[in-house]
């Protein structure tokens, strides 16, 4: 996974979003820009906050070997993945180009059909 994300997927995403922002056919409206900023901020918060909550919980000795199901993970099994899709939706909206929406769509589909099932299988075997 890491051999695909950093050398392939991340550069393609960044180049795609940069090209989308550079080759704008029309200006992004103020409303679109504000919604994009809100999506980016909300997604960043969801992803970062959920990971920090889990990290702080896992560092406590009494929680060693336990599965974390508190904080934002009490509301969603994958708030960090949701946050990533939301924040990249903000980026896609900010470019003003419809075709940049492939990024959050691809991310969402890869989470649903690959990463989440893989993680669920791992968690099922790890926390029997």
Concise description?
Helices cover 73% and strands 0% of the residues. The protein is an all-alpha fold and 128 residues long.
Explain this structure to me?
The chain has helices spanning 2-22, 30-59, 79-95, 102-126. With 128 residues, it is mainly α. The chain has one domain (2-126). Helix 1 (2-22) packs parallel to helix 3, helix 2 packs antiparallel against helix 3 and helix 3 (79-95) runs antiparallel to helix 4 (102-126). The longest helix has 30 residues, at 30-59. The mean pLDDT is 90.
Strand and helix layout:
Layout: H1 2-22, H2 30-59, H3 79-95, H4 102-126
Helix pairs in contact: 1-3, 2-3, 3-4
- Series of secondary-structure elements, N-terminal to C-terminal: HHHH
Report strand %. under 5%
pLDDT < 50 stretches: none
What is the averaged pLDDT score?
Answer: 90
- Count of helical stretches: 4
Alpha-carbon distance between the two ends: 25 Å
How many structural domains does the protein architecture include? 1
Silhouette: elongated
Strand count, sense and closure of the main sheet? Answer: none
Structural class: mainly alpha
What level of helicity do the residues show? over 70%
Strand segment tally = 0
State Rg: 17 Å
């Amino acid at each position: 996974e890491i051999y695909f994300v950093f050398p392939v997927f991340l550069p393609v995403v960044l180049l795609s979003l940069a090209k989308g922002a550079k080759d704008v056919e029309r200006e992004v409206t103020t409303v679109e820009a504000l919604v994009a900023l809100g999506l980016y901020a909300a997604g960043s918060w969801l992803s970062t906050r959920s990971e920090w909550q889990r990290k702080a919980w896992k560092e406590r000795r009494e929680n060693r070997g336990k599965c974390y199901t508190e904080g934002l993970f009490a509301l969603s099994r994958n708030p960090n993945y949701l946050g990533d899709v939301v924040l990249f939706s903000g980026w896609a909206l900010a470019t003003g180009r419809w075709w940049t929406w492939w990024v959050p769509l691809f991310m969402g589909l890869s989470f649903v059909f690959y990463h989440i099932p893989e993680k669920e299988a791992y968690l099922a075997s790890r926390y029997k």
